[in-house]
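Q: Structure tokens for this one, please.
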Amino acid sequence: QVQVVEFGGGLVQPGGSLRISCTASGSLVQLHSMGWYRQVPGKLNRELVAAIFSDGITKYADSVKGRFTISRDSTSNTVTLEMNNLKPEDTAVLYCKVQDWGYDYWGQGTQVNVSS
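A: Here is the predicted structure, written as tokens:
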């Protein structure tokens, strides 16, 4: 059993910053990647915001490049997403996904609201 717990989120004004974190614990076998995804209304699948892989490679959605930074602490299986220069269109429920030994595990989601 793998548990995925998210921290952070909330309300921020446009141009502001926010940090969210996610920790994976439990029966991890071989952690492949951890990342953040958002649910887009009208779309079936959640779309990538940012992810970091076991070799340290990172991947970002084009809309957040240069504004968001994902990092990880391998000792605690925690990833952190630093979000800067937030825009109203960044408003979403962000879900943490953990890929371990071919399986995907999701967190409950954390709300990010960007509004004045």
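A few notes: The radius of gyration is 14 Å. The chain is about 0% helix and 60% strand.
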